[in-house]
Protein 1
Amino acid sequence: MEQSILVVDDEKAIINLLKQAFSRAGYDVRSAESAENALDILEKENIHVMFFDLNLPQMNGLELCKVVKKNMPMSVIYAITGYASLFELAECREAGFEDYFKKPVKISNLVKAAENAFEKINRWNSKELKNK
Amino acid sequence: MTDNTADKILDEPKIFTKEGLLEVIDALPLAIAVIDSNRAVALANKSTYLFTNKDQLQLIGHVGGEAFGCIHHDDVPEGCGFGPECLKCKLRTTVLTTMEQKEPQHMVETVMIFKNHGERHLRISTLPMMLSGDEVVLLAIEDITEVKKYEQTAMEKEKLSAVIQTAGAVCHEMNQPLMVIMGFAELLLEDLPENGVQKENAKEIKKQVERLGSITRKLMAIARYKTKGYLSAEIIDIDAASDLNLNESD
């Protein structure tokens, strides 16, 4: 099964970068420049690993994360932000983000995070199968 | 004939007896002293004794700087009024101006250093008057050190808030392109052959962007208002102002 990642950022250059980086690491990458666009993609596609920018137009990354986690509690979502404070960090955890990266972040760290996310999801899936 | 009694009262120095004046000034919360024509303390209220932490023997009859405990009284053998620092002393010049011009002086602010309680910020007012037949100056001293400290703290809080807001905006805008440059430098490094000049150049780009990233992280962690001299200007000292101390900036 192809491992898909959804990247949400309103900066085209960042989307371009993350698309290239995750594709090289062997992942299938979908992208959206707004939260609304991201929700449309998630309705149609089965994606469980995501990277959201926090500062999105209209619905922000925190709100988007809350909506996604409500519908897909097993999804693993990471926040990437250009400006962070401790208050935001607490809010991110509360919204359901798995972890939190401050820009500029090393690509290798993001790829590592994606690997961990898929590893976790696979573990959860195998447990579910055993329970059934 | 015009009766100008009221004008005369305003023009002429106020006339008091020592006892009468002491009764009035003892009831006031400011340090108030009477300075005679020899610049010595002729009378002082209770607040002055509290302010100087001295008794009547140590205060009355002693020249201003000695009585109040100014550190510069000991600068020269002649004492208060004769040292080089005395030329700059606003307390001394305010009293002398009042005496010479027979005009009151209002709310003159100055900083003095005392032997007993260090540097104090003072607000002084004076009034020329007649006391038991002598021309004297009534000197009121208000210690506004705490007020000044509070004003300074409030001003620094305001400045800090402006610095944090500006730093936040700058960091947010800068971190986007930094992320893009750093990310593509990383991808470029993967593509370039080992031991080539281009690989070294790409490494340098990545290193410098990481350095910029550490500066924006320090900017985002600014928690206090600290400046440092830079040529003839003052700039924010990012290392001292930030809660992060990465020591990477030159």
Protein 2
Amino acid sequence: MTRVDACQIRVTRGVHLLPAHKQVMRIAADIAVVALIGSSAAMLVWMLHDAAQPLATLNPNLDVRLGMLPYYAMRSITRMLVALVYSLIFTLIVGTMAARCKRLGRPILLILDVLQSVPILGFLSATLTVWMALFPNSQLGVECAAVFAIFTSQVWNMTFSFHRSLISEPAELNDAARMFHLSAWQRFVRIDIPHAMVPLLWNCMMSVGGGWFFLTASELISVGNDSYTLPGIGSFVGVCIAQRNMVGVLAAIGAMAVIVIGLDLVLWKPLTAWAERFRMTATASAPVRSSCILNVIHQSHLTELKQLLLRMTDLPCVMKLRQHWCVSRATLHRMLQQLVRNCKACLVLPHISAAARKRIADVLFATFAGTTIAGVMAWFGMAVVEHQAFEESVRVVELGSLTFARVMLLTVLCSIIWIPVGVHIGMSPKLSRIAQPIVQLMASFPANFLFPFVLMWFLAWHINMGWGSLFLMALGTQWYILFNVIAGASQIPDDLREMMTALHCSRFQTWRKLILPAIFGPWVTGAFTAAGGAWNASVVSEAVTYGNTTMTARGLGAFITQATDQGDRFSVLLGVLVMTMFVLAVNQMLWRPLERLASSRYTLR
Amino acid sequence: MNFAPPNLERVALAAPAMSESPELQRDALIEGRCLSKQYTNDRGQKHVVCSNISVALRKREIVALLGHSGAGKSTLLRMLAGLITPTDGQVFTHGQPLTGPAPDAAMVFQSFALLPWLTVIDNVQIGLERANLTRSERKARAQSVIDAVGLHGCEQSFPKQLSGGMCQRVGLARALAVRPQALLMDEPFSALDVQTAQQLRTLVIELWQQQREGLSSVLIVTHNIEEAVQMADRILVLGSTPGRIVSEVAVHLLRTGANRAHTEEGQRLVRRLYASLTGALSTDEACSIRLTESNDEPQKPDSEQEN
């Protein structure tokens, strides 16, 4: 009953007039909110204006004065956010289709899986000409190509996460939605999106972090003879590295740190704090997320504004419009039904039972899909024959297995190092409160900005690039493992740990019987993401340049990079295809079974 | 699950005999005729959840579906609600075959099924969004049902801040808000503590007696015998594997303010229902079918006594 009292108190408090100093605070908050929105809008307009300049004005030699860094940073952030918006739109549409259309679901997931494994350079070389043709003589073509490249590095895990949320909606919620006759749109807005909000937001953060890693590759576009340098912090680093400008690289690293922390403060902190309301269950152990910016927004008159707008829908003219809309929608629906009925009547179909119809559709669909796959394979086989590239194909597969070995070794080594650390951090709430945001920031920092320094270290110590590239890949992807292990370890219930202590279990036994099984699920998720990231990162990490020093490891990533530089489209295609095959095979044969095992045996619920 | 095949056949043979009564019950709000539901699992094994069940929910009555967990009670309720389509048989509302969720019915769920991100009043309004009402009309209607279930003052709180009993009150208000003729309740009080559940039972009976929001009939699924005796005018006892109606018991006890299940006659009825339930469980299939046949006999004297 005390709970009821509490909420009553809150209701009455809202009615009281606030004292004067609170009113002043609220007005100050209003000004802050307006300033925030206004400056964001102004920045967007400015950046879009600059992006739409004619192509001829695009300077191939980027101005690397340090004073230009803030401007470049803004350009890069805008690109990143525009790509994020497109990623969100794609996610909402495709994720819903995959979850709601029975027959389309599996093929869509398969296609997403394939696309996810294609490295970013593959997308760039395949689509650059299309973008350039869409916006002739404008920088927008190049900008679009860059945004698209960033988009392809962000979107897939978001879509997968949204799809997973949609199919894991509680059954009773689903029943309630149908019982109360929610329309498809209401259901989407009221149930689907809120239910998916928290995981989707976390994946957005991870995606943006992943996107920074490929920023240089997206902004310094060189495909064969075409090379473009877009103003941005990624290209700034790229150019500084080519010019052996150590100060520039250091300044860019500093700017990048500011960007990562700033975005976290201005964008992610408020969003995650706001999204807390969308959690299905309130767990006491979860730390309370707060954000000063969100508090300011709550202080302002935004809620009153929203109420006012909502009250506008009661105006007679709006009601009339709505009635018209309802009537016309009903009429349209009736007409469509009539049309379908007429069509059915016209086509004198033999009477087939629903089950048989389903089977026929299945067969037709399977035939279609099979033909498509066979067609692509045949076309590619012809291309191999035409280029007389049998030996090269074999060599590429060999390179692929080298990179595969590297990725696997990386996953194992990172797990060995980070599981004990992660468990230690996760099991102590005090430590994880400090460490988790740091790890999260580390994960979003683009590791390739540090490559020049690591490269010099390799040169000085004569470290073989075969091992070195492994280290470079790990620099970016290890955080996924650590992050997930921390999250998993912090979710081990206290009573289970107390039980282990009460039964006088040894440390070894506790690890074997409780901790390792309990973090298995999160570890699989983390290791899967890390391995996937490592495959993509191999393109950047196996051939590293500083000035005119280039270190190359034998591997598929280096092969694709070199082929792109030389503009050898066939080789790029071959490399991308082999990499896709490898990733798909490993996903299907290793990670999916592990995920299934984790969800069937090792869930803490 | 392995069923003895001969028993299954016997159940299947019984089906046509029951489906021969052609005219629908006149005063039935929802009527299910010869409903069967079977699922096929990944290995291709068939699992019969409900077998040849005919149920009618008439106007102005409370019916309880009583059975063990796994007896297919919830499946039956969802078939009657139009949420799942039966493998065999058909559901009718007002004499029309039902396709899709029933229009004049609302449901109350065991786990409440509230949207945690909406306030109480927004949760209650969710079923009204399709109706062509202005915001103020919607709000007024939601407010009136919120008052009716005793949640006044909690309109702006979130479900997380409420206790289980409060949450189920919200679920009840949400169902009443759409002005349903039939209220379908899926084990609505089994997640609550004894005292709260008792309060809510009394509340539902009161709302039904007052015909609040045009509420005509209630169909409640439960495994609690006393709950069934307290609330229902008719009790359908479901036997498990496969789910089928073992017996139907009319309750002719007076509705006074007190709990009917605690009167002497009520206790006798509880004992008899308990015997019927456990009998159906402890013996094998053949025995339970015999029990179905012999169950009509002792029912008469009992109900006479209760009169």
Protein 3
Amino acid sequence: MPKSNIDIVKTLESKLSSKSVQILPGQLGTATVKVAPGDHRDVFRALVDADEYTAISAISGLDLGANLGVYYHVRTSNAFLTIEVEVPKDNPKIQTVNDIAPSATFHELEVSDLIGVVVEGNPRSGHFVLPETWPEGVFPLRKNVNASEVKQNPPLPEEKSDEGKLVKIVIGPQHPALLEPEKFAVLVEGETVKAVQPRIGYVHRGVEKASESRSYLQDVYLVERICGICNSCHATGFVEAVERILKTEVPPRGKYLRTIILEVNRIHSHLLTLGHAGLEIGYETLFQYFWRDREPIMDLQEILTGNRVVSSSLTVGGVRRDLKDTDIPKIRSVLSDLRKRLPFYTELYQNEPSIRARMQNVGTLKREDALKLGVVGPVARGSGVDIDIRKDDPYEAYGEIPFNEIVRSSGDTWARMNVRMDEVEESIKIIEYALDHMPTGAYRVKVPRVVPAGEAIARVEAPRGELFYYVKANGSTMPERVKVRTPTFSNIPAFLKTAIGETIADVPPNFVSLDPCFSCTDR
Amino acid sequence: MNGEETVIDYLLLLFRVLVFPGFTFIVLFTMFCDWVERKFEARMQNRMGPTFTGPGGILQPIADFIKLLTKEEITPCETKRNIYRYAPILAFSVLVFALCFLPIDGSSVIPGVSFAGDLIFVMALVSIANFALFLAGWSSSNPYSAVGAARVLTQFLGYDIPLVLLALAPAFLAKSLTISTIVSSQWLPFAILAPWAFVLFVITMQAELEKDPFDVPHAESEVVGGHETEYSGGKLAFLKLARDVQIVFGAGLISVLFLGGANGPVPFGFLPQFWGTLWFVLKVLGIVLVSEYMTVLFARLRIDQVVRANWRIILPLSILSLILTVSLTYWIFPLV
């Protein structure tokens, strides 16, 4: 469902005719644009002028031998472009684009931290993902670096900073409001937040680097462990990309089974967040109720995949387990039980006065800010930005299944949570449709262990938003490069923007409404 | 009066103060209330609640208390040491002392301490206890504690005024500021005669006790432990116990001022102490359950919403309620 009929490739061709730009349609999304360093800013300017939906999905840094490749993956309203820039390794300088597309800020920091591209003009500096003790000049994603041989510096004594009258409330790395370790230093004056200083990377495990030394099959299980909650989405992103390189077509039954697994994942993730939000606003009853009803969904996942949490059921070429016909009535009864409870929860989230008091007009992200910051998933849809990969760029069986895209316009915490609330209902519909129209036949195809040289991208609508995978194969049994950009990474800037000026008490509900997942963010 | 009787009197006094209805009873009853609260909350939330220690987990609060007592105590070096050390015990003992003025078994714990105006004295003790909690947080020299302590103070400064104003309604009806007189003049509970004051008093007490939806000082997702953050071991045990005693005291005050305290609906001639205590305990448990019900039902408000609710709604309403009570006394008095 195209949101606009801008032909972005033609627009680029006409606007950039004077530059030495090479446009290759059909590669890595809609098209790949190869430009010289410096000219990439013009490409971005042209894109931003042509389409308000332009946002950076990810920036992949690649070690290409003598050069470093900086691939900007850009989504527009109806297309997905990759802008390739190469900089020499001995002088890896590139100009920032965050003044044109503010969504670039975090991605640029990550690229400079992990592969050593020097981004000129980015307002932030210092380590972003790697620890402070990481030695200077060692960039883990370069091919000559062996992570196990890196000697870390001794920890530095903590600096005593002087913020004057501001009190520094540190949320994280260990804090009751966060389920995972990440640090947000909130500077407050009285109860009002004046600034937020983020520091991510506390659970950086180097999954991208590790996947380069494992076979494709092992990598499926490795990337699943990036996130416990949306593990199937990660597996889908990876196997989709690999299947595109292999040019393998998954049998229809495999696609439907994957869709069901993904939607069960989404229901379970949304119920978790909707409950967790209750905990953040001191509404323990809400939390207990949601998590009680989440249990049968976990059991459903076990029926489908054999595992309660990390499903490990997807594989390159299909799924590893077929669905038994005898299990279908069980799945249906669990879903109809959940559906019976949903009106009560919807009513609660819509009308309960204390929820409204705590969530309405909290963390309001305006539509233009949402577009500018490049937020994804329910955060974007809560701000009236209708992006959903399932609709925009259908994968698996989503192209054949009818469902509604939930969009709300108020942009506050309340809207984001209600988007999730309504999406649970849609997910139930999708699963029921998929069960009704389940094709027969094979559920997987055999694929070769050696993947031919090539590269591909895949996008998946995870419960938290667009999940991006870039896989580059070099003709061996192991990938050359795997780039993962998780939804929370894109959504954190929204929190940094909206938290300022609100009270400390607004920080937890605002933050949880992003459904943050830090083990995803750090990888 | 001969020597033997004096000794027996002293022993009786000691028994009253230390065992029943004094210290031991109050502490055990507090723990029982804690268990009731936890069990009730758990059942409301589809959980089991404590089950392990004792039948139905009834000994769990005692086990928790003992466990905390045995744990290591850490005093961070930047704390204001003396205040940090004595604030929990001050809060606890002030609250137990305040409870001694409530006629638990028909007369106050220490016989004869009841005096004209002891209602005001008891309210003052509550303020001191709250202030001790603030000191506990402030002396911790921890940003979370500082914010939590500031919230304790903000909240209690606001809600103390309506609480005292509303406590005046029963005093007006009984024409006395003496707690025992207020209790003895309630053959018909004031909750029935002045329901507006009763409802408001229960809500205000909820805020005073820092329970949901007013428990901003304890908002763990915002300020971790609030004023308790730096506390551990025995000091934490006493802070927690002080909070539980505070809840029992709040419920006790409501039952004394509005529900007739130890007065039963049917007077029994024999064993007045036993029946009085039973009625008092039942009423307190009732109030605790109502307050827990509110806790379960609502999300926590924000501090600015709590403050606004006080100055814009609760305070004007409590003034109105006072006016209403005073102007209706002409019709109500014949009933007292």
Protein 4
Amino acid sequence: MKQEAAAKQIAPSASLRETWFSFLSQTLTIAGKDLRAEWRTKEALNASLAFSTVILVLFSFALDPNPEMLQEFSGGLLWLVFLFAGALVLNRSFAREMQNDCLDALLASPVPPAGLFLGKTLANYALLMTLEFLCLAEFGLLFNVRWLGAVGPLMLVMALGTWALTVVGTMFSALTVNLRLREVMLPVLVYPMMVPPMMAAMILTTDLLAGNALAGNMLWVRVLVGFDVIFTLLGVSLIDTVLVG
Amino acid sequence: MNALEIDAVWKYFGDFPALRDIGFKVTPGSVVALLGRNGAGKTTLLRILAGLAKPSKGSVKIHGSDVREEATRRRIGVLGHGISLYDELTATENLVLFGKLYGLDDAEKRAHQWLERTGLERVRDGLVREFSRGMRQRLAVARTFLHDPEVLLFDEPFTSLDDRAIAVLQSLITDAQSRGCTIVMSTHQLREAIELATHIALIRKGQLAYAGERRQEMLDDPAWLYRTFESESAS
Amino acid sequence: MRNRILLVLTGAFAVLITWNLKNILLNLPDEARQDAIFRILYFHAPAGMVALIGFGIGMAFSGVYLATKNLYWDTLAASTTEVSLMLGAINLVTGSIWGRQQWGVWWAWDARLTSMLVCWLIFAGYLMMRRAVEEPDTRARLSAVISVFGTVNAWFVYKVIEWTPRLQHPGPVLSFRTGGKIDHTLETPFYWMVLAYLLLGVILVMIRMRQESITREIDSLRRLAHA
């Protein structure tokens, strides 16, 4: 009797585990697909890298940075570059599914829209983090900024801030996929919403690059974490509404 | 249990009713030809059947469950206007991808089987981007049948297929039907459709003008259907 | 029936605004530190408050649309957001004018105005997106999602900008809630103004709703004619 009851208890949670496992596996399949397709062509990556290099060079002309001034706005500058270059990657995210009507096939498949969303967000995240790391290296070279000393906390800030950008950007990529002027609408919608996490990330980055420890700015880290959690939840709940009419 | 149960389905685009009170049942093993002029609402209905759009009113059940449920979608295969394949992936990678999404444990094996069946074994490692149109269509057909769906939904499948692809598709449809699969196919090609079909559904301006078994008159003269029911509805 | 309500509300608004304007412009003494210009704050702050309330209400209406799929709620949400944008613009312009007088610059990047500017941009994007989508159901769905994202974001915007060190610089913003010992005569016109703006908001939304329903009727007649 007791064994039966125990067995019954195991069975439901096993099927819950199965559901989670299948969700995770589908999400990773989608992420893998996006990354593989991108790696084959490297279109978005190359374009974004080229674009960010150009922006960095233009900024150096526009601002004529000396070391003292650079202290003030290094974080701001860096995240602006990330934002602009990131828009290219994010725009393509759902746009690439429109070719050949792939989005319809994905939606007709058993993949839940939340899984599709998270899979794409993960893929975009990987692409953006790669891009940003390369940008950071470039930035260090061009502007003579030493960042290796703070690389740990810097990576943390980049990880949190990039997730914010990726989650909101992927969501709006799905939202604008059928719109006219999609390439313009995405930045117009996303950039104002990026003000809170970008402020936090910029302040943190500037401080870290100036040599201060992360511990003094935990408020901003909490802001980033809070934003990430809330908007990931919002994205996962609302993606179905956006994709299926 | 019916393979498909379409119950009082309405679809509004704003105030415009694209589908008005569509209701019919499809028994397992039927081949339904969904006919109608351009803009009648065939594609809209098919999209709702495939779970790509939600009806404004009414419900669609496939084998007793709502079409938006995961378990149900596993049993449906959809072939739309586009080929729904990724240009930057190889034929094998595309099929394995969809195999995994449909929860197949042996995705690679199935992919190879279907590449053989559609005559694409030789180009299995070629990028879809480099395929000819006929090859892309055959691969799309492979993708549709890959997970052995019990219900198949086709939106104008014979349009823009080359002869080889048509032959492959026709044999697959006949084979699927003999296995008891249910097929709903919207088409303009009256002759091919009516030959394969067991049942006909005619949609006129969003409404169901005729839904029932294929009759001999339709086989003899496909245009009979339009003449009879288009004018009946008009009066 | 609706016409009558509209008439009554408009009448109430007219009376209220006239009485309040008279009060603000004539009866109040000039404030010691700022002279006459401080009166503009009676237009500035309430507009901002009601605008933010409006954005929140818009999100609530969007939520109702998502639950019921009734397009009426989407139109209501859009109208409310439009009117809130207008009030937000009033807030920005009056704030800028006041800032010019007080600090000598048209835009001083102070916390409140900057926050309102960002929110304004978010919801202007909402309206822009609505222009880009023809189909009413799709438009409603997408708008609802942007509204939810935008309103939650607005909360973050206000908090984050409040905490940002650099933006706290420019002078003290006159606030009725800090330093509690505000004279009663100075405070009440503020609250009446809030009520006036709320009334104005409701009136404008009602007018907008009527405009929208007429447009939709024309559109559907047009479609029927074409079909």
